[in-house]
């Protein structure tokens, strides 16, 4: 779960408040003490924590909360608003020049995921109907040029490289090539170091002066907590960053970097890395992240994920099949694969209101991931006739399917039983639709 430790403690604290009918000043101060401890344990900058708690206390100790009919909900509302403000209030978008070439400099230390993030950003921008090109300007790290060229091949995207040489000349030549090839966005993968030093900054300054980039994005590993904030501060002072990209946020159980970087540097978080795949880069929405931390879910991001991964035409066909009771195991397999393409189940559950804390309660969520794979293997071991007419699957067919999928006959029986129950439920829903809605489009569970 995203920010598991912090989210769990905050949600538990507010759960106690909800159990009280009316809040006293003492109740609020006790809750804020727990919030302060939770933030410090999450490696949030101590000055940021001090200001954050002070802001909440000023708003909570007064008529806004203590005189409210729903004081606990008011406290949560205030914390949600202050968390959002702490992380940047509004979503900060990438600046694309309407005319001419947009240059995006990717900067950061070695090991932060800068080269992979450059490729992820290129893929993301391609979806926005722009023509990106990547530039291999890291001439020091062994195999850095090979890595970005390999990523370019995976994305079917051009990569400009000149091997070793002066990074400034490489970028200048890349801009000429981009203009000739009608590439309107140039993403420059610059060199990193193991730590911030003047040699690195001088080189980055020379590139900045030579090409006047529209964006200078710092890539930092969110799991390094306060170190990430210190790195951001150093780069921002010397280069004037326009944004930060936090990588490995899916593995960050604390959240110190995400909650501190904007408050300390004044530099917005523009993107977050949520996995290793090249499509695992998401715009950072402060208000949505605050809601997820407080267990309110993130329905908008879930909808966006579904819209991007789900096939709308297939969804319409599927709805028609459900209405006419023609839903088959073939359709079920197709839906299963589309859900899996949305990402890990724990990330999807985090986005569902009230489900953020379920990952702890479900002892091993990874088991559910394996079960999805098992179901997929069983259905793929059936022939087309069996998928469309499960009724024909007798005992000998079940043995063959189990053998082909590496499962047991009991697993095949269980799947067929569950599928039969699901069809009955869909039949009942269809009858309810006809009775209550008289043909109006609904089925909200469908993409």
Number of DSSP helical runs: 21
Unreliable spans are: 357-367, 438-447
Largest sheet data: 8 strands, mixed
Percent of residues in β-strands: 5-15%
The percent range for helix content is: 55-70%
Q: Based on DSSP secondary structure assignment, what is the total number of beta strands?
A: 8
Question: What order do the helices and strands come in, and which of them pair?
Answer:
Elements: H1 4-18, H2 25-41, H3 46-60, H4 63-66, H5 71-87, E1 102-107, H6 114-126, E2 132-136, H7 144-155, E3 159-160, H8 167-180, E4 185-189, H9 198-211, E5 215-221, H10 226-239, E6 243-247, H11 256-265, E7 269-273, E8 281-283, H12 286-293, H13 299-309, H14 312-323, H15 329-340, H16 345-350, H17 358-361, H18 365-380, H19 384-388, H20 395-405, H21 409-437
Parallel strand pairs: 1-4, 1-5, 2-3, 2-4, 5-6, 6-7
Antiparallel strand pairs: 7-8
Helix pairs in contact: 1-2, 2-3, 3-5, 5-12, 6-7, 8-9, 10-11, 15-18, 18-20, 20-21
Write up what this structure looks like.
- There is one protein chain.
- The chain is 58% helix and 9% strand.
- The protein is α/β, with parallel strands linked by helices.
- Strands 3-2-4-1-5-6-7-8 form an 8-stranded mixed sheet, with helices on both faces.
- α3 (46-60) runs antiparallel to α5, α10 runs parallel beside α11 and α20 packs across α21.
- The longest helix has 29 residues, at 409-437.
List descriptors.
447 residues, alpha/beta, eight-stranded mixed sheet, 21 helices, 8 strands, 58% helix, flat
